[in-house]
Specification:
The chain has 8 helices and 11 strands. The chain has 223 residues and is of the alpha/beta class. The longest helix has 15 residues. It is elongated, with a radius of gyration of 18 Å. Bound molecules: calcium ion.
Length: 223
């Protein structure tokens, strides 16, 4: 799951990035509103964390433009001060949640998890197909109740495929979900993660199918 942080306080942005990357998310950071507006047009993010006081374009305007494009992207606003008017305006413009600085990183992570769940359209934390279950809060996969050992990348691939169960996901989409702008990832690497994941899912009743030239889909296994 890929998250965009828009924050002009570099120290705070760094702390947020570190914390969210630790939780296994791919995280991008921009430091002004115009860059955020541009990045959001690409439509590859699962969540926007948005500071209000920003150079070039303020957070309200970024949000206004996002919603004008009919994007339903979950948005968590970060505000520098406890101002009820500001909060109301942010929520009216279509923000989903609101945090006043300073906040604890634990609280931020909890809100991020909740927003991502809602964004995926499942308020339930556990999704199950066949013998496979995935806890979207803890991001832990299990088979018949036994936790499955997956790398961060394998977890990301599985999470992305599960969110689109039965539908095709291209390699490009997997690359975008797994990595931030600053990292290069090859399609070959994706093939390796899928290969490992497929082995670990053997006998579960679901499998990763390859559709040559199109991508992958997670589907029930029948042979
Ligand atoms: Ca600011």
């Amino acid at each position: 799951m890929r998250i965009l942080i828009t924050e002009d306080d570099a120290a705070l942005a760094e702390a947020l990035q570190f914390s969210l990357k630790q939780s296994g998310y791919a995280v991008d950071w921009v430091s002004n509103g115009a860059a955020a507006d541009e990045a959001l047009k690409g439509d590859v993010f699962g969540l926007l964390i948005l500071d209000l006081g920003l150079p070039k374009l303020d957070g309200f305007e970024v949000l206004r433009r996002l919603r004008r494009r009919n994007s339903g992207l979950p948005v968590l606003i970060l505000s520098g001060r406890e101002d009820p008017e500001e909060k109301v305006l942010g929520l009216d413009l279509g923000a989903d949640d609101y945090l006043v600085k300073p906040f604890s990183l634990n609280e931020l992570r909890a809100r991020v998890r909740a927003l991502l769940r809602r964004g995926q359209g499942n308020a339930v934390a556990l999704v199950s197909y066949g013998g496979l279950s995935f806890d979207t809060v803890g991001r832990v996969a299990s088979i018949d109740g036994r936790a499955l050992t997956l790398s961060v990348q394998e977890t990301g691939v599985l999470e992305t495929l599960l969110a689109r169960f039965g539908r095709v996901v291209s390699k490009e989409q997997l690359v975008e979900q797994l990595y931030s702008y600053d990292k290069e990832v090859s399609h070959n690497a994706i093939e390796v993660y899928v290969h490992r994941l497929r082995k670990k899912l053997a006998g579960v009743g679901v499998t990763v199918r390859t559709l040559y030239g199109r991508g992958y889909l997670l589907d029930y296994f029948n042979s």
